[in-house]
């Protein structure tokens, strides 16, 4: 249990760092454009995933590719859409406020489970109890506090955050189905390389990011940098985000394998609190172009909102 919690904590830390670095790259490489930064980030992640792929490789992933190709494609589309919207939001909103707001993904998941998924799967809609509705109300309350904790967030940025949550929630739903599909393939074929939870998850992640990397490499020539912008500088700013994001995913999947997806998601939801603390540190160090300097009362309100988001996820997953 303690190892699983530690792995989840590391995933949360690297996620908080990745959002901080993405905010830095978006603001310091404006001429590269959101799309250009996104392409470069996924080229880097694609290369790193290609290096890791042989360690979990099995021919079954090729022979049965048609069995999971569609759901993987949907996961990629929704994930990239979510990342694009996140980068757009971070042009004007500090990471210390964006990351806790991503807890609103809970609302999107609730809508998907109640209204959308029953029509897709043909099953019954999920029924929510008191704790699930408590989690939803805590999420709304935390979002309201975050909007009041500091300069008011522009409505356009809130829309970008909302679309980020929609992309992430849709991608999470598809990734869950993808991992189950890979597990089923492993059980059907008797392939031990796809046994358990961690191996199918990591295999799906590596293949997904390799495909994203190929797509980014193909689209990169369409995004030309101004002549006065050095390519090495842009690659240098976006690299920490790519490294931290992929590292966070590996820690998260290892956490899932130790303590399960529900507990793992609860632990990694502390990323919002960590992002607030990292933002406060950056502001104190003088990086005010990345994080606004706020008083103690505002910082406390943000931390309260971050804790509320964490408690919302705990309540929503309470059985």
Using the CA coordinates, give the radius of gyration.
19 Å
Identify the overall geometry: globular
**In terms of per-residue confidence, which ranges show pLDDT below 50 for 5 or more consecutive residues?**
none
Mean pLDDT across all residues, rounded? 85
Compact description:
With 319 residues, the chain is mostly helical. It contains 13 helices and no strands.
Description:
The protein has helices at residues 2-28, 34-52, 60-63, 65-89, 95-101, 105-121, 130-148, 155-189, 198-219, 231-259, 261-268, 271-284, 296-316. It has 319 residues and is an all-alpha fold. The chain has one domain. Helix 4 (65-89) packs antiparallel against helix 8, helix 6 crosses helix 8 and helix 9 (198-219) packs antiparallel against helix 10 (231-259).
Question: What topology emerges from the helices and strands here?
Answer:
Blueprint: H1 2-28, H2 34-52, H3 60-63, H4 65-89, H5 95-101, H6 105-121, H7 130-148, H8 155-189, H9 198-219, H10 231-259, H11 261-268, H12 271-284, H13 296-316
């Amino acid at each position: 249990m303690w190892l699983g919690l530690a792995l989840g904590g590391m995933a949360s830390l690297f996620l908080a760092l990745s959002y901080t670095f993405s905010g830095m790259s978006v603001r310091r490489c404006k001429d590269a454009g959101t799309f250009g930064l996104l392409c470069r980030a996924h080229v880097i992640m694609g290369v790193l995933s290609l290096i890791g792929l042989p360690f979990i490789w099995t021919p079954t992933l090729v022979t049965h590719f048609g069995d999971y190709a569609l759901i993987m494609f949907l996961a990629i589309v929704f994930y990239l859409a979510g990342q694009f919207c996140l980068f757009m939001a971070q042009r004007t909103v500090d990471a210390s406020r964006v990351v806790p707001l991503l807890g609103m993904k809970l609302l999107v998941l609730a809508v998907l489970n109640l209204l959308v998924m029953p029509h897709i799967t043909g099953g019954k809609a999920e029924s929510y109890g008191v704790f699930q509705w408590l989690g939803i109300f805590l999420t709304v309350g935390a979002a309201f506090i975050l909007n009041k904790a500091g300069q008011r967030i522009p409505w356009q940025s809130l829309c970008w955050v909302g679309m980020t949550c929609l992309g992430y929630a849709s991608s999470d739903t598809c990734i869950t189905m993808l991992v189950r599909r890979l597990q089923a393939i492993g059980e059907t074929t008797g392939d031990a390389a796809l046994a358990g939870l961690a191996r199918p998850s990591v295999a799906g992640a590596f293949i997904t990011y390799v495909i994203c990397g190929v797509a980014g490499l193909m689209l990169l020539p369409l995004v030309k940098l101004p002549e006065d912008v050095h390519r090495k500088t842009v690659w240098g700013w976006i690299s920490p985000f790519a490294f931290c994001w992929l590292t966070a995913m590996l820690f998260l999947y290892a956490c899932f394998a130790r303590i399960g997806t529900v507990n793992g998601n609860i632990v990694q939801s502390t990323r919002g609190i960590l992002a607030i603390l990292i933002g406060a540190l950056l502001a104190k160090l003088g990086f005010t172009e990345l994080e606004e300097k706020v008083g103690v009362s505002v910082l406390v309100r943000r931390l309260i909102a971050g804790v509320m988001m964490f408690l919302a996820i705990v309540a929503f997953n309470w059985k």
